[in-house]
Amino acid sequence: MMIAGEVSGDVHGAGLIRCLRQNNDNIDFFGIGGLKMLRENFRPYYMLDTLQTHGLVEVVRHLPRLYQTLWRMRDALEEEHPDVLILIDYPGFNLKLAAYAKAKGIPVIFFNSPQIWAWRKGRLKTIKRVVDKMIVLFPFEEVIYQQAGVDVSWVGHPLLDQISNEIDNTSFLKQYGLQNDIPLLAIAPGSRPSEMRRHLPTLLKSLPHIQEQVGEINCIMPVAESLDLNEVKELIESSIVPVTLIAEQFIETIQACDAAVVASGTASLQTGLALKPFAIVYQVAPLTFRIARYLADTKFIGLVNILAEKEIVPELLQNDFTAEKVAETAVRLLQDKDYRERMISELQNIRAKLGEPGAYEKAARCIENTFFNC
User: Fold this and answer.
1) Residue 161 lies in a domain
2) Residues 218-227: tens digit of each pLDDT
3) Were both Cys, which of 20, 48, 343, 372 would link to 368 (CB 3.0–4.6 Å)?
């Protein structure tokens, strides 16, 4: 059984399935996942949008649905009794399911650790109790779990396999009718529908302010599979500055742009690894933000800043997330050559900390060696 609750988890799940099938083509994978996992012949009980929520306070109204899903997956553990349960991030749901699997004698693997180094360190005790093997993406996570006595392996970050800084973007630009002599700004409001609805209007309002100072710009927006393309099209119709929508090509969009404004999450790390000057934005309900700030053990929300232990990428959060501040930041990202070069240099240092490519292959071999006796 495999459970992914986020768009990034769907990518990870598909990668793990693909690599595990290299030596074990008869494995039956089932559980909760997305379209990428389905393309790898994953058998879904639910699609991952069943689990998607946004914020701490906002999740309350979704609890009945989430618990119904949890109870159904507990029943599935009983009915199918899988050889192993592979959980991908999404700790609020997955650690509850892990406890049930552990009680039933089903081995539990957790891929992509919860951010216990950023907040809710108390989860470490739960993880030690209910997770048999933790597979982590960042080197400092391995140290944390080793010190806590958790069986852990660091495999590097899968995003290193996706990023190339030596590609020719000419065909991509031509495909979408974009001129390579005009500044290209990418806006990425998030892969969850609730994130997109909260962030996109402000980003669109910022574009005329940017164009007033920079001159003509091209603006592109990657649209994740989890979003309704027609809904996004309706929202951008009101934009004074045209926005070109790029369906399901986030990496290509980021590698082609000159600068980006990106919602916090995996997308921000992808942008950093692509060595693109960018800013991080995020906004949730005020109470959610206050609770998160109280619980957090880090000053930053962006992974690149957390890894650097300082702000190398600007973060525009909550009340700082306004059209005017987005515009001011984007203009600097596009025009201030020294600022751009300093940021790119810092991002190169971050990338060097994340290990070597091949994370999914390493994780698959780790799972095989530990549980399948391969």
Assistant:
1) no
2) 999 999 888 8
3) 372
